[in-house]
């Protein structure tokens, strides 16, 4: 039993709990005030919200005109005239068709009456509810008779007729015009707001930045992302609606439904309303087709047309054009539509998505409101390894296995072990003493065994009989140490390396003497302890004494990367240290191939060789202006990313040249022909990084066996390495723009995109041609051996 806390220790805990309660209560009060302000201030807030929404849509057009040399006033005027002209033209066509339809509707009464009579005739006859209806009618008649007998002597009611007072023509006109005055007034206010916002957009942005306050970078990013997301959503939604409306209008015209322009326009407008709009836009053409055609062909063809267009729009057009551009989850979209409809009515339903996008961005950039991003965002609330860990805690290994299988399909078995499996075990090691109960530990141990067994059964490996394992993995004292061994052994077996897991290890001489290591070349010691030095030294010392020919690799899975340097291989008596499954696999393979040559040829892409040689011939490498430009680009890259070194490398047939750098770099040779600095002939860097012609980010060079042994990187004190290809339009790679830092770091997706943009500037300066466009941020390639995330 845990003893109770003494009063002095309990008081701060109680105060912290009270502070949390007060914080939650204050948040609820503030949220209530905001909701009340939104509800009671809708007369002012709705026109403002609509105006800002329209200004987001028209802002890019105004900016385009301003960049073409027009003044802002003239650009706004031209944009508004164009928009009002388009709306007026569409409104005129719609009005003409509405007038024509209103004149033709009386002629459809006969068709509607005959169809209704036909449906009624078909529904006559005995049905499943006829007996129940007859029973209800009988009961009603009996009740009426009883009531009538009780009221035989009652005085019959007297009819009272109310004669309304005569209404003047002026009052009649007001009654007709009053419903139109409010929408017209709102439209006028919105129009004025839109013009003012477009004219004074910079001042409004400055005022918003002042209101947000705090970090100027964060506030600027928040406004930029909100504007980009909403503008993209509105533009893509407009394109989707138009691509739906035009085929619908043409299809209705071919079918013969009157007012096809009206119904196409109505469909384009109504689809701005989430969920309800498409249904409402389909009711009118279906009703008219029912009224026009005496038969049922027109109704069926119209329904088929709408069904096909909905399927194509929802499954092809929308995912292709904008997909999840808003970043909102489906559940949050539905909840937001319900909330804004309850607050602002139908207008709130139309504005629900853009307003919720603003809330999402606010939650992303303001830490105090991060709950909004969690509730509204489309990104997973929990990482994949956290989901697996939670399923194991909840004693649901089957669901954990399903999640693991999905991860393996996306990457590989080794990739799953490296990225998710080991993270689950790391989290379990952290919670082992602090949070977990005995029941939780048992669930995790059993569930992880079931998961690993299922993966081994699905991705089995055949070990030839009589072949002794080349690698033996010895776990430490915990179950998770053994499970890490099983992951590593399975990964090695999938790579064709015979490996086996030994029984739990100890530091005693008796245990070491009992080991059977005949034929074993490498022993891996698996430890999740954050302080394994004492146990490791004792075990490695006894292993060295008993098996001197065996290489020892330490798997220090639980030690953070920034502390891994304190646990060196030599002080602990080992040959290598690994922090992840991939790193351990690569180091083991290198130790097994210790006699082979490990250098990498400089040319990895044969089809680009002629281009590189031609570039060398065309470039005047002694051109001082070119060298200064490239050095300036390297200096800019180093300053922007705040790294120690930035270098521009060009690949030749059998050499790599350094064309630009932000500082003098050691460990280089001089090309005797061009007198340009080049990497030693037995060391390649750009070709090693860009074997796949993709950007590469290595947060910790020491965790990559090949890069860790690169003499140039050692001379440059490289700890973090990032490289973007210098790529031509046709995809051929000339070299790389490299960032090198002497501390462990990582780059975000936006930083990777920025690095590729700078590499494109290098291409333009070298070749004088336009570089290929930079793709949208995606998950960059990472070092093959980095398993642990770099702490922020």
Topology:
Layout: H1 7-40, H2 42-67, H3 72-104, H4 109-123, H5 130-150, H6 169-199, H7 201-212, H8 216-255, H9 260-270, H10 276-292, H11 297-321, H12 330-344, H13 346-365, H14 370-376, H15 384-393, H16 397-410, H17 413-434, H18 438-458, E1 471-475, H19 479-494, E2 499-501, H20 509-514, E3 522-527, H21 533-546, E4 551-556, E5 576-578, H22 581-592, H23 609-618, H24 624-641, E6 645-651, E7 656-661, E8 669-670, E9 677-678, H25 686-689, E10 696-698, H26 705-708, H27 711-715, E11 720-727, E12 733-741, H28 749-767, E13 781-782
Parallel strand pairs: 1-2, 1-3, 3-4, 4-5, 10-13
Antiparallel strand pairs: 6-7, 6-12, 8-9, 10-11, 11-12
Helix pairs in contact: 2-3, 2-6, 2-8, 2-13, 3-9, 7-8, 8-9, 8-11, 8-13, 9-10, 10-11, 12-13, 13-14, 15-16, 15-17, 16-17, 16-18, 17-19, 18-19, 24-28
InterPro entries: AI-2E-like, ATPase_P-typ_TM_dom_sf, GAF, GAF-like_dom_sf
Pfam family, one: AI-2E_transport
Protein name: AI-2E family transporter
What does this structure look like?
This protein is of the alpha/beta class. The protein folds into four domains: 47-70 and 188-361, no CATH class; 382-460; 469-596, Cobalamin-binding domain (Rossmann fold, 3-Layer(aba) Sandwich); 606-782, Beta-Lactamase. 61% of the residues lie in helices and 8% in strands. It is built from 28 helices and 13 strands. The strands form three sheets. A six-stranded mixed beta sheet has the order 7-6-12-11-10-13. The protein has a five-stranded parallel beta sheet with strand order 2-1-3-4-5, with helices on one face. Helix 21 (533-546) links the parallel strand 3 (522-527) and strand 4 (551-556). The radius of gyration is 37 Å and the shape is globular. Residues 1-10, 595-608 and 777-792 have low confidence and may be disordered. Keywords: Membrane, Transmembrane, Transmembrane helix. Residues 766-792 are annotated as: Disordered.
